[in-house]
Amino acid sequence: MKKAPIQYGKSYLYSETDGMDLTYFIDYQCRIIVRAIQGFLDTYQKIRRDIEAFDRWLWDSGLYRQLNDNQRILFNIAKDDHHQRFTVRGVENNLGCSYNTAAAALNGLIDLGLFRKQKEDREWIYFLLDKHTIQKSWKS
Q1: Do 68 and 43 reside in the same domain of the chain?
Q2: What total number of domains does the chain contain?
Q3: Model's pTM, two decimal places?
Q4: In a designed cystine with 109, which of 6, 31, 34, 115 is the match (CB 3.0 to 4.6 A)?
């Protein structure tokens, strides 16, 4: 309605002046739905292409091949959920590895320029950097 308020008004008036024939109004609403679906599909395709390009870059740059199995698991989880937060204890429990192995995996991701960490209370929290920062730091 915000994008075409005049068309909405016309469809309403046409319905009223044509014996309450709702065809005009329904046609307008269907066009709104089609426009919304097309907007969604366009956004989806753009995001999909962006993800594919980043995945291709990860492989072509050789960065992905430098990760060990635990780091790949953590990186893929973080890549799929950008708001994911990791702790050494959480990784230890979820991957079923030792504390030192979990810490080494997370710190290795920092060393490769994929993650950052910050202290919250008495615990380090690890986060994935955004893909533009990763690509920029890897090129330099």
Answers
A1: no
A2: 2
A3: 0.71
A4: 115
